[in-house]
Amino acid sequence: MAGGLAEVAAEVVACRACPRLVAWREAVAAAPRAAFRGQEYWARPLPGFGDPDPWLVIVGLAPAAHGGNRTGRIFTGDRSADFLVAALHRAGLASQPESVSADDGLELLGCRMTAAVRCAPPDNRPTPEERARCRPYLIRELDLCPSADVLLALGGVAWEAVLRALAPPRPWPRFAHGAEAPLGSRVLVGSYHPSQQNTFTGRLTAPMLDTVLARARGLSETGRKSRTS
What we know:
The protein is α/β, with parallel strands linked by helices.
């Protein structure tokens, strides 16, 4: 599986299918924030990151302009990354509580992070056409993670991306924090995205995310027991 994921990663990094996103990610890199002035931005699409044979796949919206688009790794170098990876560490899914750079030594344990859209979009709003162009990468990545019996969608865009990738029969389940939807041998779980807008306002708190991750682990363990009984 690792070889297959590496092939998908290489294709993702080389992708230039969305002119608007290519222009934006490169413009951000050309005019960095003062705090990051002098740093070389990645400014390319981001592949998934983590365990090559996970039981949990976390799907976010897209890289942050000055986070993953700068550091070259999904959920790395921004406040959303700080919040998410600290929770993964508390849950025993990350080797350390911080994700600050692509060479910081972070390892994910039984877990993989990816995104619905692989380039940083203006205003964090990819268009429907851009989401559709990125969808084949998510489909292939999920196919290459057959042990991932729980999928955690961070926000409504990620929730919809997973549903479209797996194409379950309609009507589709609605997104909500803590929502659960069986998708064949897998379960889709929803969480509010760990954006500053959500975490600073208290819409998403650390205990709320801890509860979702604990529930995801419980669902995976229950599924494994039922398959071996």
